[in-house]
Specification:
Layout lengths: L14 H7 L25 H8 L14 H14 L3 E5 L2 H12 L5 E5 L4 H10 L6 E5 L4 H7 L4 E7 L11 H10 L3 E5 L4 H4 L9 E5 L13 E5 L1 H15 L5 H11 L2 H20 L4 E5 L9 H7 L7 E6 L4 H13 L5 E2 L9 E3 L11 H6 L6 E5 L5 H12 L3
Parallel strand pairs: 2-3, 2-4, 4-5, 5-6, 10-11
Antiparallel strand pairs: 1-7, 6-7, 8-9, 9-12, 11-12
Helix pairs in contact: 1-3, 3-10, 4-5, 4-9, 13-15
This protein binds pyridoxal-5'-phosphate.
The site of pyridoxal-5'-phosphate has 12 residues, from helix 4.
């Protein structure tokens, strides 16, 4: 494979350019679009070269579980967009979190997380890792004092998601990075909602950026993918060995889809954020709506921080609560709004060009206990909308069908 031997100085290029030009590794055919290498194994030039490659003494692909040229292109391009030295990809966002925890933590270590994180993240860290002796605590997303008070001598990792799913709470990445580093720990940030189009956590001091590529990196709801961006040392020495033995490898086809998805990430996030802001403003004025959660609204508690951290944009996801007298009525009413949809998709995914609506309390956060759900602020009347690219009037009309019937 030939690479960009006499190409431009990539370190001098803008992010929009890197999204379409970084990590193009052309084969001898000179294809313009990135090639998809579907192979599980590689023919080695000699037994000695194979030995050197397996030992890590020589560059070269060895086996599909360990690496693939298309997968490597995706990793390099995502690293370029995040401003990260390196990146390693996985089969899904959750397997990226699993790889991070298996690589960094051992029995007796402590991990400190926001209690508003994605439901499966809370389950994985709070329950599954506990079986192997990893301690965890969950604190307020926004109160840095609570994070500080919860740090223990054995705290190895702070992990936050910003904005959070589904309440779009924003944490101060720089403050948490300082806290982690003063305690000799690392800070990891789930950048799934904002993506590098809006927010690059390493610029604010984070050590690891985690992605569910299933969301905006793909952007059209086609494949599952995940990734960790970090230093070369963390990627090569801490995460790659877990990938090699754990096998949570990203499939080449999926890598190719997300690689191409990155090319339109910036445009999509800007357009979808503009739509989300307009929809949030409309919902805030709707008589059937009790509250709207969207970082782009001045009513959002971390509005200023969000705009400063996210390039002035609120992102493409918002949530709102329907007005109701109690939790039972709230759930019935939320279901009524969702069941009245004719155009928008009732789907728990997010990050699609199609607008997706979901009831987090019974789906993405359905595996949590009632106490965990309440701590995460996920009420029965809450509806999450991942705003797509349909015309705003059509999105509003579809939501209004149910809302105006309440
Ligand atoms: C914020 C966040 N992090 C992680 C994940 C997990 O990603 P995946 O579904 O690709 O495993 C999700 C999935 O919805 C998510 O919303």
């Amino acid at each position: 494979m030939a690479s960009e031997a006499s190409g431009p100085d990539f370190s001098a290029l803008q992010r929009e350019t890197l999204a379409v030009r970084a990590a193009v590794a052309r084969s001898q055919y000179g294809e313009n679009s990135e090639a998809l290498f579907l192979t599980s194994g590689y023919v080695q030039p000699s037994a000695a070269a194979a030995a050197a490659r397996f030992a890590g003494d020589e560059d070269g692909f060895t086996y599909g579980r360990y690496g693939n040229p298309t997968v490597a292109s995706f990793e390099q391009r995502l690293a370029a967009l995040e401003g990260a030295p390196a990146c390693i990809s996985t089969a899904s966002g959750m397997s990226a979190i699993l790889m991070m925890c298996l690589g960094l933590l051992k029995a007796g270590d402590h991990v400190l997380c926001s209690r508003s994180m994605f439901g499966s993240t809370i389950k994985l860290i709070g329950s599954d890792l506990a079986k192997f002796g990893v301690e965890s605590s969950f604190v307020s997303q926004t109160d840095v004092g609570e994070w500080k008070a919860a740090i223990r001598p054995n705290t190895k990792l702070l992990f936050a998601e910003t904005p959070t799913n589904p309440l779009t709470e924003v944490c101060d990445i720089r403050a948490l990075a300082d806290l982690a580093h003063n305690a000799g720990a690392l800070l990891a940030v789930d950048n799934c909602f904002a993506t590098p189009a809006l927010q690059r956590p390493m610029e604010h001091g984070a050590d690891i950026v985690m992605h569910s590529g299933t969301k905006y990196l793909d952007g059209q709801g086609r494949v599952m993918a995940g990734a960790l961006c970090a230093s070369e040392a963390l990627v090569e020495k801490t995460f790659l060995p877990v990938l090699k033995s754990g096998g949570m490898t990203l499939a080449p086809f999926n890598a190719w889809v997300v690689l191409k998805g990155l090319e339109t990430l910036d445009l999509r996030l800007r357009a979808q954020s503009a739509q989300a802001l307009a929809l949030a403003q409309w919902l805030e004025a709707h008589p059937a709506v009790a509250r709207v959660f969207y970082p782009g609204l001045p009513s959002h508690p971390q509005h200023e921080l969000a705009l400063a951290q996210q390039g002035g944009l609120g992102g493409a996801v918002l949530s709102f609560e329907v007005k109701a007298a109690d939790a039972d009525q709230a759930r019935t009413r939320a279901f009524q709004v969702l069941d009245a949809l004719q155009l928008l998709s009732l789907s728990t995914n997010l990050g699609d060009t199609k607008t997706l609506c979901a009831h987090p309390a019974s789906t993405s956060h359905g595996r949590l206990t009632e106490a965990q759900r309440q701590a995460a602020g996920v009420s029965q009347g809450l509806i999450r909308v991942a705003v797509g690219l349909e015309h705003l009037n059509d999105i509003q009309a579809d939501l209004d069908r149910g809302l105006s019937s309440l």
